[in-house]
Here is the input.
Amino acid sequence: MEKYVNLRCSSILAILFLSFLRRLIIEFKVLDFMHWPLGGKGDTSLPHWLYPIIGIAVLVCGGGVWAVWRVVLPRVGKFKWVQTKERLGDGTVVTRFRREKKE
Here is the structure.
């Protein structure tokens, strides 16, 4: 029964990822750099495909920074992040992370 549940969860995750990718392609035109501008010339001297490539690069770099901070550093440094919530003077609740040695 566990294998069936795991397969079902991964199928749901795959469907969610594909629908997110579809939304990027169709609605936001992030990956739509195959279409040439009318007349073959854009409105600037930069190539038309540069904008989505830079956007994708920024997203990938952000994911890399997160992976290093949340996954790699704790494994190498042998610690874990502990989440604490604090209330500021105006009532705002903020979340802070502190390092705690693994036992």
Summary: The first strand starts at residue 79 and ends at 87. Residues 7-32+48-101 form one domain. The two ends are 33 Å apart (CA to CA). The longest helix spans residues 50-77.
